[in-house]
Amino acid sequence: MISDINQDLQVKKLKKFLEGWRLALVPLNSVLLWEQHWHPCAIIATASVIYFIIWLIDMSTLATFAIIGSLINLIDFVVPIISNSICKPDSWTGQNEKIFEDICKNIVSNYNLTWEKINNFYSMRGNSPIMYYIISISMLCVLAWMASSINNVFLLYLFTTVLLLWPGIQHKGIFNTLLSMIHMAPKKAMKSE
């Protein structure tokens, strides 16, 4: 488990790293957390348009990664400039700072949780190698089967859409509601014949 002091240091580093993006992250956070009813539709529509364009262009994989990398770099360069020119620094309020700090804390805690789960999985190799190899080989076989059966761009679209919708799903408690409904479902006894 990551100590609170180490996590606070990570949050400070992330805040400094995202300083130019802070004016854009506050409204983006409200979209990702579905503060309006139309936000999930906007997320799905944006991902759909982007992947539809990628599908229409039909470039090679390497060219697609190069174009996407170039666009990400362009966005990373342009967004801080535009957000600082549109919104003056004196319009930044204490409430915005609190939201920005909460965003950074959430990013750091999710990052640490993900790495902790990955490390726990790889520690199974030493603790329980049979279970580790069963899980690894099974997941890789399923992944290979999916990749050979389903269009890779469509799989990436599904993964991206779920990844973008996940913060809102967690924030609204939809996943927990579904899990509780599954656990509360009546269990039918097996009839022996």
From TrEMBL:
Would the keyword Hydrolase turn up in this protein's UniProt record? no
Keywords assigned by UniProt? Membrane, Transmembrane, Transmembrane helix
Gene Ontology cellular-component terms listed: endoplasmic reticulum; membrane
Coiled coil ranges (UniProt) are: none
Report how it sits in the membrane: Multi-pass membrane protein
Principal localization reads: membrane
The RETREG1-3/ARL6IP-like N-terminal reticulon-homology domain sits at 23-181
Per UniProt, subcellular location reads as:
Membrane
Transmembrane as a keyword of this entry, yes or no, is yes
> Which residue ranges run through the membrane?
38-57, 63-82, 130-147, 153-169
Pfam families recorded: RHD_RETREG1-3
Which PANTHER family does the entry link to? ADP-RIBOSYLATION FACTOR-LIKE PROTEIN 6-INTERACTING PROTEIN 1 (PTHR20952:SF0), ADP-RIBOSYLATION-LIKE FACTOR 6-INTERACTING PROTEIN (PTHR20952)
**What's the protein called, per UniProt?**
RETREG1-3/ARL6IP-like N-terminal reticulon-homology domain-containing protein
Source organism per entry reads Leptidea sinapis
